[in-house]
Amino acid sequence: MKKTILFCGLFLTGIIGYSQNTYPTAVNTTAGLGTGSTALPTSSTLRLKVTSGTAGNSGIQLTNVTSSTSTVAGNSKALSVDSSGNIILTPVVNMASTSQNIYNADGSLTANRTVSLSNLNLNFNSATAGGNLFVNGSNGNVGIGNTSPAYKLDVTGFIRAKSILATNTATSATSFASSLDYLKNSNVFGAGYEMTNGGMDGATRRMFNFYDLHAWSSEIPANDDLFIMNIVDRTNKERLTFYGNKAGGPSNGASNFVINDKNEAEIFKLIDNGTDNILLQMGRSNSRFVVGGYGNYGTGYKLVVKDGAALVDGNIITNANIGIGSTTFVDGADTYRLSVKGGVRADRVRVYTTWADYVFNKDYNLPTLEDVEQHIKENGHLKDIPSAKEVEVNGIELGEMNKLLLQKIEELTLYMIEMNKEITTLKSQIKN
To answer: Is the pLDDT of residue 10 over 60?
Structure first.
């Protein structure tokens, strides 16, 4: 009898233990595993509650579903499993909310994102040293290749772009604290080494600069807006400058192109005053202009045209001398404006000189024919006329020679008049 009672007790115990692992099937019934009771309160919205003995572990294992099983993306948090098959909750990108993490998973965003840094920096750091893309949360400056951008965009390294667009919002109505502040706010683009001397500190002046200067104060007169592009060296000396005024302003849209030396002294300047008056000036005393050659050709000459022909369709005026095939202008005590080595061909030559009409003056001492004959015998040429040897050595003065020849013609004329008188007298005597 005792054995029978013991067996029945064990059987009932097994039935009771087995019933705790059987889920109720009735509507709105609940069940719990590890909760300490077979069912949950009827007021609970839960239908199944599992209490695990380990924190962070659900206590549920899906034997044929692992983390490698494909999933469908959802919003907020999703039910997932770890590598052991435990059910876990994981955050996912919420495509409908701007408050979720934008750096959570690969893929394409299908909606806008607004990031409020609130004085916190955003740093995308690539595997390459110095490959940062950095956003300063305090001032909004962006650095590429550095994490301490001093400007709205501060790039360490080279920039390659099809185009760069920069604008200047300063207008004539803008008030500036100083000329330096005015210049700083008018700098549209700058590149290269930043100037730290010459009174340009803080003016964002670099080795290459482009300024858009609107009319302001006494710097730029009203309606005379000015743009400037310049290149300066590291000592803040302007080596190249191009600037132009607004058309229709007081400067008539003038333009200037200037090249300076290392001391910022002008070498070359091209000026358009806006009224079609163009001026090219090279004020240095050692300036040279070579066409068709290089600087080592024609050394010593200010203007050199190598080969070919030069056409000047206008007047050529000089206050010095002109040499054609010759560089010598001094002959004895005389200096000649035009020196030609070779023949001179002309339709007309006009010479201004004194003339020989003095032969016909009453007080002119006309040599006798006997004196003329004696001079020829002794010297082999007429009196006052240079000898052949003298002409060969010294040449002749064209105007002076014509005067001397006229002098001899006038003397011959006087001789002929005198001889005609004598002939007339002889004829009269013979007739009588």
So the answer is: no
Cβ within 8 Å of residue 189, ≥6 positions away: 164, 166, 208, 209, 210
Residue 383: is its pLDDT beyond 60?
yes
Q: Point out which residues pair with 330 in neighbouring strands.
A: 335
The rounded distance, in Å, linking the Cα atoms of 382 and 297 is 51
User: Rounded to the nearest 5 degrees, what angle is found at the Cα of 312, between the Cα atoms of 307 and 314?
Assistant: 170
Examine the pLDDT at 299 and tell me if it is beyond 60: yes
Residue 172, token pair as written in the block:
């004539």
pTM over 0.85: no
What does the pLDDT look like over 322-380, one tens digit per residue? Answer: 999 998 999 888 899 999 999 999 999 898 888 999 999 999 999 999 999 999 999 99
Which three-class secondary structure string do you get for the chain? Answer: CHHHHHHHHHHHHHHHHHHCCCCCCCCCCCEEECCCCCCCCCCCCCCEEECCCCCCCCCCECCCCCCCCCCCCCCCEEEEECCCCEEEEEECCCCCCCCCCCCCCCCCCCCCCCCCCCCCCEEEECCCCCCEEEECCCCCCEEECCCCCCCCEEECCCCCCCCCCCCCCCCCCCCCCCHHHHHHHHEEEEEEEECCCCCCCCCCCEEEEEEEECCECCCECCCCCEEEEEEECCCCCEEEEEEEECCCCCCCCCEEEEEECCCCCEEEEEEECCCCCEEEECCCCCCCEEECCCCCCCCCCCEEECCCCCCCCCCCCCCCCEEECCCCCEECCEECCEEECCCCCCCCCCCCCCCCHHHHCCCCCCCCHHHHHHHHHHHCCCCCCCCHHHHHHHCCCHHHHHHHHHHHHHHHHHHHHHHHHHHHHHHHHHHC
> From the centroid of its chain, how far is CA 349?
55
